[in-house]
Amino acid sequence: MEKTPFKAESKRMLEMMIHSIYSNREIFLRELISNASDAIDKMYYKALSDPSLDFDKANYYIKVTADKANRTLTICDTGIGMTKEELENNLGVIAQSGSLAFKNENEVKDGHEIIGQFGVGFYASFMVADVVTVISRAFGSETAYQWESSGVDGYTIVPAEKEDVGTEIVLKIKESTEDDHYDDYLDEYRLRSIIKKYSDFIRYPIKMDVTAQRPKEGSEEEFEEYQEEQTINSMVPIWRKNKNELTDEDYENFYMEKRFGFDKPLKHLHISVDGAVRYNAILYIPEKTPFDYYTKEYEKGLELYSNGVLIMSKCPDLLPDYYSFVKGMVDSEDLSLNISREILQQDKQLQLIAKNIKSKITSQLQRMIQDDRAHYEQFYEAFGTQLKYGVYSDYGSNKDTLQDLLMFYSSKEKKMVTLAEYVARMPEAQKYIYYASGETYERIEKLPQTELVLDKGYEILYFIDDVDEFAIKMLMTYKDKEFRSVSSGDLGIEASENEENAESDANENQALFDEMKQLLADKVKDVRVSKRLKNHPVCLTADGEITIEMEKVLKAMPNNQNVKAEKVLEINTQHEVFQSLKAAFAHDKEKLSLYTNLLYNQALLIEGLPIGDPVDFTNDICKIMV
Length: 626
Ligand SMILES: Nc1ncnc2c1ncn2[C@@H]1O[C@H](COP(=O)(O)OP(=O)(O)OP(=O)(O)O)[C@@H](O)[C@H]1O
What we know:
The chain is α+β, with helices and mostly antiparallel strands. Strand 11 (302-306) and strand 12 (309-315) form a beta hairpin. The longest helix is centred in the middle third of the chain and has 24 residues, at 348-371. The structure holds adenosine-5'-triphosphate. Adenosine-5'-triphosphate is lined by residues 31, 35-36, 39, 77, 79-82, 90-91, 97-100, 116-122, 167. Residues 1-341 are annotated as: A.
């Protein structure tokens, strides 16, 4: 059966095109410059197939000229131009891409990939212009034609005068309103920044007459302004250059130019992949934590280019959250762009690139641990917390990637060590990887709970970040070794004399402990003999999964669920103070209550926990002084 083709209402189509495709008006310039670049590339291809033509790069450029008085912005190129028919077909038919057709007919030569493909970019001009005039003279033609349109009412084509081959597009910029600052597109500074942002790596010079200053003739102090033609774009993207030609300084300059950060990069990674997925990337590990890094305002992402044209300033999908500190850019020819070139359709290539980038960053960090420890420690100081969050979040699904990048302060080495280093040093008899939590290394060092483990000569990792214990709980083991807090009930250390004494002390003094437990009824779950204390009289530990440090962290969270650690007051029965407790239990119950409260408050202070009532506490101290 004969099929009737769909018809499109071109007026409506154009309206939709102008108002619904792009969310960002300034990209009209990117689209026109990309078209100009495509037109020059077509000349290049022509020269390839026609030996009589000589493609001298010096003759090819794009020029952007703003005329504030007449409210016009002109984009002129020395490219292949358009015949009358081409003006008709390419600019008169929405979604007709001469460039796509050209691409299909010509084999792509490296470095000269044609950008256009959808046949809509040109119409972005109507977002900022009331009237668009295109004067074009096609290569090989003596006559030029002028195409003109004010958007919805169609277009006209008339013969025109044009001396050279190429195209000139004149936009009559709309009048500004209170909300819409169209004047921006006539402003030299603004235009330069739009060109730099989106079209910096267009292969041909984008020229502009810019205002410069020079000393006035005959004067050293007075300056005058004058107009000077300058090339605005960098043209050759650094990532397309050979790594051997580039110095550290070149990479640093690119980091600064792109304003990836205000610091210096700590490390850079230049990646060129030419396999199942083709892309170039330059990635940086910054030196310092950005001031807003741990806030909601911080946006992760890499600049994304397709054929040297900026598609997205921050493409978040290229980086996992735990590497959100990485800055830089990715350029790929293989991306399937959506029509606005602003966002990407669910793109397999993008996912492949992201996966590849992730593993490159991981290997780079692992290399730094081995070969450049000082810089790694500096990096870890700035972003280690993020790696630990990475272990903890997403139900621990990234822990295998990240565990070898973690570092903690070691009681033995007095510096940051990796888990691999810790495990390699473990004596055979040591069952667990020990850790102790606290506010600072100095405070942890003095924690009574560490005494027994240290006495055994075992190394302890000091945790001072809120996320540390949560990350370790997610990790559970490293190389089959379980993590164990020095405050936990079972330290896996063989029964010592200490422990046997504790056993008999517990049996003998159960009544005393029961009474103390009653006195602290709402505060602790239990009072018991300590197997870990040597020099201190008391300490607080916790039974169950929630440790005291975790309770502190959870309490500080905005919508805390009032999760509490099951606190245990441990008593050192070898300490002299214990004799005083026993005596008080036997003869003076009031004193026992006083001592119990004092010891409990001491244990709280050692843990860095607030004591219930400081006034009561100081009064209690006074009582024993008089
Ligand atoms: N400056 C120019 N010189 C020569 N031809 C041009 C120029 N600008 C546009 N064209 C022609 O007009 C066609 C339509 O341009 P338009 O910008 O709408 O789409 P495109 O560049 O093909 O695709 P995309 O929407 O992906 O940018 C181009 O394919 C090209 O053939």
